[in-house]
Amino acid sequence: MNDFKPAGRATLIGSLPIDDHDKALRAVMEHTPDIPLWVQLPVYPQEGMLTQFTSGLPGLVLSDDRIILDPSLNNFERELVDFYEEYIAVTQGDKSLDASRFILTKDSAPGFFVLQEALKTAPKPFAIKGQITGPVTLCLGLTDQNKQAVFYDERLRDAVTKTIALKARWQVEQLKQFGAPIIIFLDEPGLAGFGSSALIGVSKEDVEKLLAEVIDQIHLGGGLAGVHVCSNTDWSLILESSADILSFDAYDYFDRLILYAKELKKFLEQGRILAWGIVPTAKEEDIEKETSAGLVERWEKEASELEALGISRAQILSQSLITPSCGTGSMSLDHALKVLKLNLEVSGSLQRLL
Predict the structure, then answer these.
(1) Distance of CA 52 to CAs 7, 48, 106, 136, Å?
(2) Could you tell me which of 221, 166, 192, 174 has the C-alpha nearest to residue 56?
(3) Taking a C-beta distance cutoff of 8 angstroms, is the pair 311, 268 a contact?
(4) Domain count of the fold of the chain
(5) Residue 158 domain-assigned?
(6) Integer-rounded Cα radius of gyration of the chain
(7) Where does the chain show beta strands of DSSP type E?
(8) Where are any strands of DSSP class E within 102-243?
(9) Is 148 within a domain?
(10) pLDDT by residue for the chain (354 residues), tens digit each?
(11) pTM value?
(12) Torsion of CA 161, 162, 163, 165, to 10 degrees
């Protein structure tokens, strides 16, 4: 992991407001050719954050108006046994991961396969990025038949986490054929409220365990694991985890992250990576007013605060990715394309500083 030094290169978080996967990938290749990624298009319901990675879960009820895990179903116990038997067979090497329920499909994640096909003829990239809804967010967002978050049912929470872990590893194993480092981001907006009354009953130990299980499988596959949180959280959850990359909203929340000075310094000294979400996505007025020069100036000011911790500017930049602060799937196409353009321009300016 310490050999991976992105040096200010650009990548994206994942979603775009486009209804065609080929067009979406062309936008990716134009704006983030060094670290392309597969695109999620939330205009399609099956690509929603709480839907896209649920196939194969026991007790799954998926229809136009609801998605739940229902342990009251007559065949749930049998489904649960089958689930664990397959999980054990895969993790012990008795069954191929690629032949299991723990894969992405062309129905649920067409963008993955569009990227895979394009990489067969594209120049070798610096790295390749995939993403998956993080286990905490998915367990808090999915509910059972009684509208209770599945996080609070230990059986369902464990099944969701194991499903996410192996689907993340599957992405690594599919993409590493192209000879570049593979990055998988766990998208964890659910961690934004950690420590508040909104997440009563969610302990730090539970969160750490869920993240570790998924990260471990990414590492076993040979990939790099990132955790993306687009708001404020208890940043020690990620800085003290085994994640290789912390992806954060540097535009709005750097002042909160820098409060974890001791953990940040250790994180960087270990050679790990900061993915700076320096290009705003939350407010249209911010997207409209910002320039790449202004965002570079903002990054330099924030980097100077890290320098004050005893980390050189050269090291900070060497261990930096540049990204939008979050996905762009819910905004207008014009705003999204400006975000991508700013992201590319900021990255280019910072790379020239090396």
Answers:
(1) 32, 6, 11, 15
(2) 166
(3) yes
(4) 1
(5) yes
(6) 20
(7) 9-10, 60-62, 67-69, 128-133, 182-187, 224-229, 245-248, 273-279, 320-324
(8) 128-133, 182-187, 224-229
(9) yes
(10) 568 999 999 999 999 999 999 999 999 999 999 999 999 999 999 999 999 999 999 999 987 778 999 999 999 999 999 999 999 999 999 999 999 999 999 999 999 999 999 999 999 999 999 999 999 999 999 999 999 999 999 999 999 999 999 999 999 999 999 999 999 999 999 999 786 656 777 899 999 999 999 999 999 999 999 999 999 999 999 999 999 999 999 999 999 999 999 999 999 999 999 999 999 999 999 999 999 999 999 999 999 999 999 999 999 999 999 999 999 999 999 999 999 999 999 999 999 987
(11) 0.97
(12) 90
- Give domain status of residue 351, yes or no: no
Q: Is residue 84 part of a domain?
A: yes
What are the tokens at 284? 């249209």
Residue 107 to residues 64, 189, 224: CA-CA distances in angstroms? Answer: 15, 24, 26
Inter-helix orientation angle 21-31/333-351, to 10°? 30
Both tokens assigned to 73: 């179903």
List the domain range (segments joined by +) for residue 100. 20-272
